[in-house]
Every structure is written in structure tokens, then in C-alpha cells.
Design brief:
alpha/beta; 5 helices; 5-stranded parallel beta sheet; 3-stranded antiparallel beta sheet
């Protein structure tokens, strides 16, 4: 079995803010890893995220995002951090139903002729609150709780390698 799709949450998974939708646009890039909003509140891309995304892409693993957020701030943060190029599909929607976002991701991939089974998916989020509903609707996918199961982004690669050795 191989992981073919990694789906990331955004807040407190890719970057340091807990709710990017509360920030005020426009955003400004302070440096390569820090963004400031219109009120000078800042947040940072976590160290190692770019390298993780790059390595996943190198391994031909599809990368998607499912985030309970307004679309504009998420897409602007991805653009300013220079990581939007890694994501094949971005679902940033202002509702808590991540299972619907993931269903839509899988549907879009299927339209392209890419069928992904639940055991070929790794979902990465800093919280477990959505997991039960996702598993009910999608099936038994793999899950890594960021900062609990993986203390750093590169540990996600170790998790993928462990799955593939089984």
C-alpha cells in the first residue's frame, strides 16, 4: 500500500495562526516565512513545511488542502509563502464539514481519472475534532495529528514510509 494523497489542514498545521479568517487583508510578506495582516498581526510558516511539500511532490504524492476558513486569506497566505504551487486542490471553505471538502477533493481527482482509496490517503491536522466524521464518510484513511504524532513536518515523511513498509 502506498500513500497517493496527503491532505493538509492549514491553521496551526502549515502556519502558526489558529484562525487566519480573523486576520485583516491585505497581507504583506515580512520575510520569506512571516506574513503581517493589515493590523500588523503576524503569523509564520512552520519551519520545514516547504521542504516537506517539495519532497511529497518529488515522490509524486498529490497534495491537497482542506481548511475551515474563508478562501481569500488562505489563498493569499499560500501565495505569499510561495507554497501554492505544491497544492493540486485547495478547499478553504467557511464551515466545519471537512468530510465534504475531502469528498469534493476525491471527486475532482476522480474526474481527472485519479481514483484514490481511503487507505491511500494521509490526512494531517492539528486537531482530531473532524476525524470521526471524515472516517465515517470517506473510510479508514491514515491520520497524523500535527504536533502530537508528528513534532516536526519531516516526521510526516517517516509516517508515510512506515505505512508503505507494512
Amino acid at each position: 500500500m502506498a500513500i497517493k494523497l496527503v491532505i493538509f489542514d492549514a491553521d496551526n498545521t502549515l502556519w502558526s495562526h489558529l484562525d487566519i479568517s480573523k486576520l485583516a487583508l491585505p497581507f504583506t510578506l515580512v520575510n520569506g516565512n512571516t506574513i503581517s495582516d493589515a493590523n500588523t498581526e503576524t503569523f509564520c510558516l512552520f519551519v520545514g513545511i516547504r521542504e516537506l511539500l517539495s519532497e511529497l511532490q518529488r515522490r509524486n504524492i498529490i497534495i491537497a488542502l482542506a481548511s475551515w476558513n474563508e478562501t481569500k486569506p488562505v489563498k493569499e497566505a499560500l501565495r505569499l509563502f510561495g507554497i501554492e504551487k505544491f497544492f493540486k486542490i485547495v478547499k478553504a471553505e467557511f464551515h466545519p464539514n471537512k468530510h465534504l471538502m475531502i469528498e469534493n477533493i476525491l471527486s475532482e481527482l476522480l474526474k481527472e481519472g485519479i481514483k484514490i482509496e481511503p487507505d491511500e490517503i494521509l490526512y494531517v491536522d492539528d486537531r482530531t475534532v473532524h476525524l470521526e466524521r471524515i472516517v465515517e464518510r470517506i473510510g479508514p484513511l491514515h491520520f497524523v495529528q500535527m504536533w502530537v504524532d508528528a513534532k516536526a513536518p519531516n516526521e510526516i515523511l517517516k509516517f508515510i514510509e512506515h505505512i508503505q513498509r507494512r
